[in-house]
């Protein structure tokens, strides 16, 4: 629910600089759809921050999952884009980590980005080396694609990312896997773009779909939608 926010801001940073942040609230329906997810938290919050400077940009997000007992898990990513040239490529370094047996991961590689003239359409690809600490096979790779489409005078936004990477892991049934795929397309209705709505009401409502194969300890394909709100600063 984060990478696309980074990509859009990254493009704008290359043009003239950008600072932005948002908070998202997601009501997760996975627990209602799958018996195997009967302990999955219902609620997730995401906090994102992006800041551009003369040498590129810095981005981070923090996810927290909640049960009726409080915070059940947490995960965060922080990345740095380095760019000293006009070509649509940048150098990329990143750290991923969290609670509940999530191993530290360190990534490095390159980002290619494209946009149309008004940034209403964007696309990006990252090709990364991924070192997963304490994994049986720590040296891996990751491919990431991101996209966004703003339409109808900015009233609606379709966005998302897709990650495919190699990571030796075992599911809850004891089966071994070497590859993971996850994608999180989002659809947002941006309320302040509608007539008679105050421009300062930076609230969006919508949904995110988590589409994954062999992710975490799961076996096979999962489709997990959310109901979501986002406030942009």
TrEMBL record:
This is DUF5020 family protein. The keyword GTP-binding does not apply. Residues 1-20 form the signal peptide. It comes from the Bacteria. Keywords: Signal. Gene3D superfamilies: Nucleoside-specific channel-forming protein, Tsx-like.
């Amino acid at each position: 629910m984060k990478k696309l926010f980074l990509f859009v801001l990254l493009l704008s940073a290359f043009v003239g600089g950008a600072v932005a942040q948002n908070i998202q609230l997601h009501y997760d329906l996975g627990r209602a759809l799958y018996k195997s997810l009967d302990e999955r938290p219902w609620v997730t919050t995401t906090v994102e921050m992006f800041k551009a400077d003369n040498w590129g940009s810095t981005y981070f997000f923090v996810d927290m999952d909640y049960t009726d007992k409080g915070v059940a898990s947490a995960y965060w990513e922080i990345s740095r884009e380095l760019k000293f040239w006009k070509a649509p490529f940048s150098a990329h370094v990143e750290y991923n980590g969290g609670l509940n047996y999530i191993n530290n991961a360190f990534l490095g590689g390159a980002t290619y980005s494209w946009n149309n003239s008004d940034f209403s359409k964007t696309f990006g690809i990252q090709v990364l080396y991924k070192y997963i600490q304490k994994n049986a096979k720590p040296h891996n790779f990751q491919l990431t694609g991101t996209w966004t489409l703003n339409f109808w005078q900015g009233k609606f936004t379709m966005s998302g990312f897709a990650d495919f990477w190699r990571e030796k892991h075992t599911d809850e049934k004891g089966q071994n896997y070497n590859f993971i795929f996850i994608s999180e397309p989002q659809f947002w209705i941006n309320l302040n773009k509608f007539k008679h709505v105050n421009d300062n009401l930076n609230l969006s409502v919508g949904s995110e779909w988590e589409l994954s194969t062999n992710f975490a300890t799961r076996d096979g394909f999962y489709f997990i939608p959310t109901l979501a709100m986002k406030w942009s600063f």
